[in-house]
Design a protein that fits this description.
By secondary structure, the protein is of the alpha+beta class. The chain contains 3 helices and 8 strands, in the order ββαβββαβαββ. The protein has a single domain, classed as Aminopeptidase. The termini are far apart.
Length: 149
Amino acid sequence: MTTENPQPVGQPVTLDDGRTVWIKVSPASARLEKSGHHWHRWAVDQTGRRVAVASYDTRSVATAHAAVWVARGWRHAGLGRRLMDMLTAAAAQHDIEWLTLSTSVDDAAAQQLLDDCGWIVARRVQGRRARVAVRLARDLRPGVAAHAA
């Protein structure tokens, strides 16, 4: 009798290096997300081990604090970028205009991810922490004309 690992549950995503992760959401998080005030996803590998997390919680009507974490062995494969894209699309759907994020100044992968997103409008470094403000692209937000000033 052979034992097979069951296929992980969630949305499969193939990364730049060919590995696959599955993006999941908990039932509790799904209930909270209906209000638009909270969004939470995690990625698991083929064994079901959590390898990345992305989330946001609103701080005001148009602002949310966001976080993205990717395990070391999974960095530089496009996972952080994919989660950031999902997070910003979800935030924009709920009319979130600004995201704030914090990262260690020593975390080169996180700094590169934020720089690559191209939306940073402010960065403040205090000690070993960098706080970043990101303004979501106008064309991502529903009901906002891309050409509007």
